[in-house]
């Protein structure tokens, strides 16, 4: 139902654009004919517009499918995975935080100093690192050791502008842009690789645990606080 409505809207939009091109091409200096042509186009556009009730119907149908997909595996045409993110930032957060984004042939590392509600983002730095093609089809240890080593280098460059609270361990948010089945906010089992990756020994394993072990091998004192 939703696909049909969207398809009709797209076809009508294309038709309007095509009609406009023809009218512009044939435009004459006679303003009367031009005004009449614009009136016809406006009427055609209004008739092709998707009614608000239909858009709401499509949105409601998607909501139902999303809830069904979250309620049971295979219960919906939409693939839904629980994220375990049960609250959002308030803007009052303070301290030094790190992030690692693995989503393709490159990965990004970032650090940000937050100053709470009054100061917001005090400072931030990031770096993008290319992943050698051989590591995309090698072993899980080789891939995560490489990532952890680059992360350790980035942490070692932490300047005086970034300050962690005394006695507090550094925290890392891990964005892993591949299909995972999460079991908590900081754990998730890899379902399959995409985007050119093919590391068989990693499928079915906890990606957070693998990264944590690689960080330990680098003597990197950092806790993975969230998988997103």
Automatic annotation (TrEMBL):
<dbReference type="GO" id="GO:0006006">
    <property type="term" value="P:glucose metabolic process"/>
</dbReference>
<dbReference type="InterPro" id="IPR022672">
    <property type="entry name" value="Hexokinase_N"/>
</dbReference>
<dbReference type="GO" id="GO:0005829">
    <property type="term" value="C:cytosol"/>
</dbReference>
<dbReference type="GO" id="GO:0004340">
    <property type="term" value="F:glucokinase activity"/>
</dbReference>
<keyword id="KW-0547">Nucleotide-binding</keyword>
<dbReference type="InterPro" id="IPR001312">
    <property type="entry name" value="Hexokinase"/>
</dbReference>
<dbReference type="GO" id="GO:0005739">
    <property type="term" value="C:mitochondrion"/>
</dbReference>
<keyword id="KW-0067">ATP-binding</keyword>
<dbReference type="Pfam" id="PF00349">
    <property type="entry name" value="Hexokinase_1"/>
</dbReference>
<dbReference type="GO" id="GO:0008865">
    <property type="term" value="F:fructokinase activity"/>
</dbReference>
<comment type="pathway">
    <text>Carbohydrate degradation; glycolysis; D-glyceraldehyde 3-phosphate and glycerone phosphate from D-glucose: step 1/4.</text>
</comment>
<keyword id="KW-0418">Kinase</keyword>
<dbReference type="InterPro" id="IPR043129">
    <property type="entry name" value="ATPase_NBD"/>
</dbReference>
<dbReference type="GO" id="GO:0001678">
    <property type="term" value="P:intracellular glucose homeostasis"/>
</dbReference>
<dbReference type="GO" id="GO:0005536">
    <property type="term" value="F:D-glucose binding"/>
</dbReference>
<comment type="pathway">
    <text>Carbohydrate metabolism; hexose metabolism.</text>
</comment>
<keyword id="KW-0808">Transferase</keyword>
<feature type="domain" description="Hexokinase N-terminal">
    <location>
        <begin position="41"/>
        <end position="228"/>
    </location>
</feature>
<keyword id="KW-0324">Glycolysis</keyword>
<comment type="similarity">
    <text>Belongs to the hexokinase family.</text>
</comment>
<dbReference type="GO" id="GO:0006096">
    <property type="term" value="P:glycolytic process"/>
</dbReference>
<protein>
    <recommendedName>
        <fullName>Phosphotransferase</fullName>
        <ecNumber>2.7.1.-</ecNumber>
    </recommendedName>
</protein>
<dbReference type="GO" id="GO:0005524">
    <property type="term" value="F:ATP binding"/>
</dbReference>
């Amino acid at each position: 139902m939703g696909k049909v409505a969207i398809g009709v809207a797209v076809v009508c939009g294309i038709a309007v654009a095509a009609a406009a091109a023809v009218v512009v091409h044939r435009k004459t200096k006679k303003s009367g004919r031009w005004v009449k042509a614009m009136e016809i186009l406006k009427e055609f556009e209004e008739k092709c517009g998707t009614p608000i009730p239909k858009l709401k119907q499509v949105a409601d149908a998607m909501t139902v499918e999303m809830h069904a997909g979250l309620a049971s595996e295979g219960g919906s045409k939409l693939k839904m995975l629980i994220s375990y993110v049960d609250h959002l930032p308030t803007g009052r957060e303070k301290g030094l935080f790190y992030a690692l984004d693995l989503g393709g042939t490159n990965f990004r590392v970032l650090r940000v100093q937050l100053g709470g509600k009054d100061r917001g983002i005090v400072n931030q730095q990031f770096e993008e690192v290319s992943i050698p093609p051989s590591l995309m089809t090698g072993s899980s240890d080789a891939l995560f050791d490489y990532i952890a080593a680059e992360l350790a280098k980035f942490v070692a460059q932490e300047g005086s502008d970034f300050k962690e609270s005394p006695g507090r361990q550094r925290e890392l948010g891990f964005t892993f842009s591949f299909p995972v089945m999460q079991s908590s906010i900081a754990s998730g089992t890899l379902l399959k690789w995409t985007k050119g990756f093919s590391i068989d020994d990693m499928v079915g394993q906890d990606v957070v645990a693998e990264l944590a072990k690689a960080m330990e091998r680098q003597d990197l004192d950092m806790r993975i606080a969230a998988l997103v």
